[in-house]
Amino acid sequence: MTDDAPPLRVAVIGIVCVSLFAALFARLYFLQVLQPTTLDEVRPVPTEEVVRYQAERGRILDRTGQRVLVDSRESIVVTIDRQKYATVEDKAGLLGRLSRVLNEAGVPIKVQDIEDRLVDPQYDPFKPVPIAEDVSQDLEVQLLERPFEFPSVDATRVWLRTYPNGPVASHLLGYVGAVNEDELAARASSPKHYEPGDDMGKAGVEYMFENDLRGVPGERNILVDLRNVEVGTASVAEPQSGDDLVLTIDLELQRQTERLLGEALQEARERPKRKETDPDVTAPAGTVIVLDAPSGEVLAMASNPSYDPSEFVGGIGAYRFAELTNASAHFPLLNRGIQSVYAPGSTFKPVTTYAALRTGLLDPAEEYNDRGYYVLEECEAQGAGCEFQNAGRTAYGKVDLHRALVVSSDTYFYRLGEKFSNAQTTLGPTPMQDAARAFGLGAPTGIQLPEESAGLVSDPATKAARHAENPEAFPVGDWFTGDNVNLAIGQGDLAVTPLQLANVYATLANGGRVLAPSVAKAVLDHDTGQPTRTFEPRELARVDLPPSIATDISGGLAGVVGESGGTAYDGFTGFPLDRFRIAGKTGTAQVEGKADTALFAAYGPTENPKYVVLAVLEESGFGADAAVPLVRRVFEQLPEVKPFVTPDPVTTTVPGATTSTTAAGGSGGSSDSGTADSSKDGGSGATDDTEQVEPDTTDTSAVDAPTTTVAPTSETTAPPATATTVPTSPTAPASSPDTAAVTPAGGTTTSGRRRPSSRPVRRRRERVT
Amino acid sequence: MRIDSLHDDPTSPARNVDWVLLVAAAALSILGAAMVFSTTKGTGDAADTSYLGREIIFLIVSAVVVAVSALVDYRRLREIAPAMYVVTLALLAGVLVVGTNVKGAQAWYAFGPFQLQPSEPAKIVLIVMLAAYLASRRNRLDGWPLLITLVLAGVPMALIMLQPDLGTTLVFVAVTAGLLIASGVKARYLGALALVGLLGVVAVLNSGFLEGYQRDRLTVFITGGQGASARAAAYNADQSQTAISLGGLRGWGYGKGPQTQAGYVPEQQTDFIFTAVGEELGFVGSAGLLVLFGVVALRTMRSAQLARDDFGALICVGVLVMLAFQLFQNVGMTMGIMPITGIPLPFVSYGGSSMLTTWASIGLVINVRMRRFR
């Protein structure tokens, strides 16, 4: 202490302190006593807001109603609204807090991860960016209760599709994606309240049964104050779950069918060519359909290549979607059973047969001498250019109708084609086309799946119309005898979907009843499990099929499988035909520059048909080689057949036999593309015009491969096969949607599926007052 | 020395403990703990006692701290003041490097569940350091001594400003100004310093040194709020005033304040805890709280007058200015008569560093007073 210093100025400090206290007291007194606030002044009438909660989407079950194909699960997703985030001052603090609460809640995430997501172009710039999925309810509450600590952050509940069986039946099931603007506009008045970001079915039954599967969103009318903090609830409506859908397919059969289809395509790829000059067997795609004949229900429908619908859950990336819709991947999203069209080839012969028998044109017992080629009567006088051949120009000798079907004699049917032409005055111009249409070809079957193709049945009228519309692409508008000849063996302007073709055989099996194929059995109320809708078998039409005609056709088809020399006979070696008799027809559709499309359509048991099985394998070679063993193996999965199947030896024998068959076929020289024959057609007259109709397919004409040797006891038999042309070519300009749907590969129509946008947000607020 | 003689001697330190100050401060702390619980228990069925539990731990530690700081003769601080000052500077510098960042300020050392804010004890160290220096230079407080004083205060202030922590920096300004005034610096020097300070404030506000939200908080007090962060600051001010005003004369009752329990006021267990007092306890309760502070201030000022040396007196003045400034700034902010800066309300706001610092300063005041005779 220094004595000469002046006294401390404590009083000055004291005075300052007293005045500060006085100010505080004065202000306090003013606020609390002179002008106190009442609660009514502080809280004006709260604003009402609607908060919607997504309802659970209905499940999709297989025909048993027990096995779940598609399920839903709820997930809480933490999101950041990028627009609101842009206005946040303390961004680092926000992200730090957010990553801390997420980590505390067990979601390992770094601030950097969140920042990366916020700039990820994968997410829609106008939708909140998902930061973490499947977080706990506690965290949801924590985030929603503290909007001030977590500005721009939201926790929303979403329902996500789950697929317990992985990619099985993906083409039938389809997938869901975010509703787009057009779809939203179309559903503006829907009682199910679609909002941007909601999911809806985009393909398959998810799309077709959208109205059943989608639930009614729950609604909470909440009262919020000026800070958007909830202060009360005006009304609540719980969400109502969507209804369950029971399909007609059998999960196990579907699974096995898909597996067998994949294996068959792999086998086809590995099988040696019959001839060195044959195009490569790439076997890129195929389809198998199993129908329940009496009801028209689809028991299995496999399409390969396939995709995994779970990739679409929560939005699929643009890059991945482009891959799935790419030609080089052979359009995995395409359901080939209904969306692709193919030339039926010889599988069409039963329809030709029906037309000939029904009109009385044909005596089934009459024998015709198959010399291996057929020359049109009308130009025999001219001597050249009118010849149509069997494959390899093989002669079958004397054949009646039965034998012609069994060995698949093309010349027999060429002759029928010309006979129809000659009988125009009495039978009219289109008896074969009429029969085809009666069996349901040329029109969608009406199955409950989207984007079904109609196929094409051409006749003089449609050909003329096509020419009139686009004379450059279709320079010939007249219908010639050659057109009829081609049509008789399932070529020419004829394109069918596999489902249509399967349904033709179902109609044969059902004695003429044309049923609408169906994939849906019933819609069940989600809560009670009681059916709200059921789908009974629906008869579309009836083909007038007298028993005598039915017997003639079915007898021939049974011979294809059961008689020595039948084109499917070898493929069914060892199959318990005595217990389960099968009738069917092979087909081999030729494609310019590519391997043949292999077809086999069959039904059984023949006494009381229950199942129809059809296989179509693109670029896979002869129907007998590729499609018959596949159909056989699918039959072996059926409960009526399975117990009698000799295990391993049979299944291993079939590919072995096929291989040796190929070798024998090569040596027999039985198969040929018939290119030379086509060139012979390049003269004058009616057949010349016939060829000109398809300028790019002149090289592909049909020839039937005869079975030269039949050795029932031997595994090495000559290859039975039919060869047909494919109606269009890669460069043929399309003048109608139907022809446009046919592509050179034997039918891949691409469908422009909507691209699902990024992650949906299911809960949002909408200011109503 | 015999015990009875110690009791008999009216000048003995043990006979001169300022119980009034101690009781008033303890009452404030207990009220504070109660309000912390009210604002943090939540609205659920099971009350959240985690904040209360930690606050009680802080109070227990505070009891030890006040005992130690009162019993160790304050005159010994004079020798160790420079060492304490250097250690404090090291802590303030270190926190900028290894500290934890909370809400944008790099101001905390983390020790497990507890965090130390070194700028809080730095207040006391600054008071002791300046008191020691000014007391030794009382007869010639101009030129170099004045400059050295300003440097002594300026270095820790600069370090704290870097965190950044505007509120604590302002406390340092107030304490330094108060000590300069009390120690008798000539009026013309004070006037010049005030002018320089004013120019400095204007320069800082117009430069980019302050974070945008800090400037907005300061200017919203005058401008009324333009822009997003200014609106948020204005919102805070508005909400706290509203809550206090809602309290009226008698308040809504403990634990029943509608705005407080709805969590409408941000930071209401720390910087804005006075709003809870105002709303739940009304004018009666909050004026009572101010009275308790008044008692603490009066007893502290009295100790300054009674102190046996300038060092002790200046310590008391420093503590008085610190407490008074924090009280006025904090309560004034909640009532809309001061700009919003992050300063805790002594004794009442939740937080260990603030609590321990406040009680240590009370200990020093008791220390000075009890040793006024020898």
What is the structure about, briefly put?
The complex is a heterodimer of chains A (769) and B (374). In chain A, 33% of the residues lie in helices and 18% in strands. In chain A, the strands form 8 sheets. In chain A, strands 2, 3, 4, 5, 10, 20 and 21 form a 7-stranded mixed beta sheet that branches.
SSE order and pairing:
The complex is a heterodimer of chains A (769) and B (374).
Chain A: H1 10-34, H2 39-42, E1 47-53, E2 60-61, E3 68-80, H3 82-86, H4 91-104, H5 111-118, E4 129-132, H6 137-145, E5 153-162, H7 170-173, E6 176-178, H8 181-186, E7 199-201, H9 204-208, H10 210-213, E8 218-224, E9 230-237, E10 244-247, H11 251-270, E11 286-292, E12 297-304, H12 318-324, H13 336-339, H14 349-358, E13 368-370, E14 373-375, E15 387-389, E16 397-399, H15 401-407, H16 410-422, H17 424-427, H18 431-438, E17 456-457, H19 460-469, H20 481-488, E18 494-495, H21 498-509, E19 513-515, E20 520-524, E21 531-534, E22 539-542, H22 547-562, E23 583-591, E24 594-604, E25 611-617, H23 623-635, H24 649-668, H25 675-680, H26 686-693, H27 737-740, E26 765-767
Helix pairs in contact in A: 11-23, 14-16, 14-18, 14-22, 15-22, 16-20, 23-24
Chain B: H1 3-8, H2 19-40, H3 50-71, H4 77-98, E1 100-102, E2 105-111, E3 114-116, H5 119-136, H6 144-161, H7 166-182, H8 187-206, H9 212-223, H10 228-247, H11 258-261, H12 273-306, H13 310-334, H14 352-370
Antiparallel strand pairs in B: 1-2, 2-3
Write a structural description:
The complex is a heterodimer of chains A (769) and B (374). By secondary structure, chain A is of the alpha+beta class. In chain A, 33% of the residues lie in helices and 18% in strands. In chain A, strands 2, 3, 4, 5, 10, 20 and 21 form a 7-stranded mixed beta sheet that branches. Chain A has a 5-stranded antiparallel beta sheet with strand order 12-11-25-24-23, sandwiched between helices. In chain A, strand 11 and strand 12 (297-304) form a beta hairpin. The termini of chain A are far apart. In chain A, 52% of the residues are buried. Residues 649-769 of chain A have low confidence and may be disordered. By secondary structure, chain B is mainly alpha-helical. Chain B contains 14 helices and 3 strands. Chain B has helices at residues 3-8, 19-40, 50-71, 77-98, 119-136, 144-161, 166-182, 187-206, 212-223, 228-247, 258-261, 273-306, 310-334, 352-370, and strands spanning 100-102, 105-111, 114-116. Chain B has a 3-stranded antiparallel beta sheet, with helices on one face.
